[in-house]
């Protein structure tokens, strides 16, 4: 932990002129991104994801409005509590097959979104913002049972309304806090995947 | 603190050092993430799978006596593999004990009195050989053994044979052995007379299988077999008579 903090320390010291966010500026943030599964996501994996990060870039086309993109990676994982059993009916002869074993379930979500954010407040001050991300989510969903696994890979359309806060630290650096509601739409084979994520990290204006 | 880091140029708004720090962090990020990826199974017994098959037309309550042959049908993709006789008898003893503990009665004179069911035990072993290649094509690995219900008398099923690796560039070889213990319950009165050249399959009253890695000590394997047999009866409450 100490090593990680020391590694991150230089990022707090990046120079040099007062944080500004006005037309023509760029803003980049890198965040730790835990997530909470909701709805059908929680039906498959019902544990909070503590493994995730996101990267956000925005270009201010005016003093308030910034366009850019957001990407990242969230990993949901759940191990069964002991043995679980699944029962299926063999359609050929209607025999009843019961399969028991330890299960490991994963959802990997890679959002690739175009974003538009509207910022409130004045340059140099704490700036809340609201925005919307539109794009696709690359989803890898796995179920491991015994020596076998069932895996579904898909790239699906999704939306991500979000709200956040940029807190200047002096110089180019700021603390970035945000929350996103991510909704991955269903396709013919897979259910929708909603989840809530939180961004906690640093940003730089340049 | 600031003076301790002279390599950070504090005079310019877009210092090369600042860009370098950001670039380093982004390049290192995948390695940090990969180190954080959650693990799957940590112990061999977490990879064990128990499968049971119930015949919806079977009247299990009318069945109570059984007979088990004194040998296990052993099938392996390793031509030199043999099932140790002591291990074979231990497995049969465990299966025997489980059925008796759950209220079944071993037929004392099957040849003359017959029995309600015949219980056949098979063991499939599959040696998986994997070549780790350094070339641009992926290594080829065998597939795990899977239960298959051979016709009676035993006909046998041979799992696939591993293919050949790529022409060059392999950096290592590893192998692991998977096994499947199959227990099949059939009605001996339903065994058809073999008049044709091909044996006819016999209707299955019930089947159970335990699939997993055939690795570890004999004591560990015995313990896992015992838990697997317990799970079979947990999943098949209709077989429990007491």
General description of the model:
The complex is a heterodimer of chains A (206) and B (242). With 206 residues, chain A is mainly beta. Chain A contains 2 helices and 11 strands, in the order αββαβββββββββ. Chain A has helices at 2-12, 39-44; strands spanning 26-32, 35-37, 51-60, 65-79, 84-89, 96-101, 103-119, 127-145, 148-170, 173-184, 193-205. In chain A, the strands form 2 sheets. Chain A has an 8-stranded antiparallel β-barrel. Chain A has a two-stranded antiparallel ribbon with strand order 5-6. Chain A is elongated. Chain A starts with a helix and ends with a strand. Mean pLDDT of chain A is 90; it is low at 13-19. With 242 residues, chain B is of the alpha/beta class. Helices cover 25% and strands 24% of the residues of chain B. Chain B has 4 helices and 7 strands. Chain B has helices at 16-36, 85-101, 110-113, 218-235; strands spanning 49-54, 65-67, 73-76, 105-106, 117-133, 170-186, 204-213. In chain B, strands 1, 2, 3, 4, 5, 6 and 7 form a 7-stranded mixed beta sheet that branches. The A-B interface holds A 10-11, 13-17, 28, 30, 51, 53, 55, 73, 75, 77, 83, 85, 90, 94-102, 104, 106, 144-148, 172, 204, 206 and B 1-2, 5, 8-15, 18, 21-22, 25-26, 29, 33, 36-38, 40-41, 46-56, 144, 178, 204, 211-213, 231, 234-236. β6 (96-101) of chain A pairs antiparallel with β1 of chain B, so a sheet runs across the interface.
- The best one-word shape of chain B is elongated
Structural class label of chain A: mainly beta
Q: What topology, given as strand order, has the largest sheet of chain A?
A: 1-3-4-7-8-9-10-11
* Largest inter-chain contact set: A-B, 37 and 44 residues
Instruction: Report the helical percentage of chain B.
Output: 10-25%
Give helix % range of chain A: under 10%
N/C terminus separation of chain A: 29 Å
Secondary structure tally, helices of chain A? 2
The main pleated sheet of chain A reads as:
8 strands, antiparallel, barrel
Percentage beta strand of chain A? over 45%
Strand percentage of chain B lies at 15-25%
Rg result of chain A: 21 Å
Largest sheet of chain B: 7 strands, mixed
Helical run tally of chain B: 4
Mean pLDDT of chain A: 90
Would you report the number of β strands of chain B? 7
């Amino acid at each position: 932990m100490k090593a990680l903090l020391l590694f991150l320390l230089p990022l707090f010291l990046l120079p040099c002129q007062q944080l500004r966010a006005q037309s023509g500026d760029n803003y980049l943030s890198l965040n730790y991104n835990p997530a909470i599964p909701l709805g059908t996501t929680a039906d498959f994996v019902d544990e909070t994801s503590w493994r995730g990060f996101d990267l956000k870039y925005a270009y201010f086309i005016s003093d308030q409005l910034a366009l850019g993109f957001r990407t990242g990676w969230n990993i949901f994982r759940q191990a069964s509590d002991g043995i679980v059993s699944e029962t299926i009916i063999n359609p050929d002869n209607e025999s009843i097959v019961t399969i028991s074993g330890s299960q490991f379930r994963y959802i990997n979500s890679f959002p690739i979104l175009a974003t538009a954010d509207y910022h409130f407040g004045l340059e140099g001050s704490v700036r809340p913002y609201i925005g919307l991300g539109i794009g696709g989510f690359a989803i890898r969903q796995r179920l491991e049972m015994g020596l076998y696994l069932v895996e579904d890979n898909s790239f699906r359309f999704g939306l991500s309304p979000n709200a956040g806060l940029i807190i200047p630290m002096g110089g180019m650096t700021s603390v970035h806090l945000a929350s996103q509601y991510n909704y991955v739409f269903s396709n013919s084979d897979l259910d929708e995947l909603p989840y809530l994520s939180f961004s906690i990290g640093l940003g730089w204006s340049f | 603190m600031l003076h301790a880091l002279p390599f950070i140029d504090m005079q310019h708004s877009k210092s090369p050092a600042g860009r370098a720090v950001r670039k380093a962090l982004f390049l290192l990020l995948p390695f940090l993430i990969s180190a954080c990826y959650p693990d799957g199974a940590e112990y061999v017994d977490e990879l064990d799978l128990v499968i049971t098959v119930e015949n919806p037309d079977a009247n299990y309550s009318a069945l109570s006596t059984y007979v088990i042959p004194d040998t296990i049908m052993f099938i392996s993709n390793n031509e030199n593999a043999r099932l140790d006789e002591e291990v074979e008898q231990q497995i049969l003893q465990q299966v025997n004990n489980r059925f008796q503990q759950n209220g079944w009665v071993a037929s004392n004179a099957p040849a003359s009195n017959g029995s309600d069911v015949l219980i056949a035990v098979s063991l499939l072993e599959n040696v998986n050989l994997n070549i780790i290649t350094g070339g641009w094509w992926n290594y080829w690995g065998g597939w795990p053994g899977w239960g298959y219900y051979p016709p009676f008398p035993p006909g046998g099923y041979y799992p696939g044979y591993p293919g050949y690796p790529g022409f060059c560039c392999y950096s290592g070889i590893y192998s692991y052995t998977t096994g499947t213990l199959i227990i099949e319950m059939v009605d001996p009165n339903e065994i058809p007379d073999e008049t044709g050249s091909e044996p006819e399959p016999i209707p299955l009253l019930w089947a159970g299988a335990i699939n997993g890695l055939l690795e570890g000590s004999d004591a560990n394997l015995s313990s896992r077999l015992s838990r697997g047999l317990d799970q079979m009866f947990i999943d098949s409450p209709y077989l429990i008579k007491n």
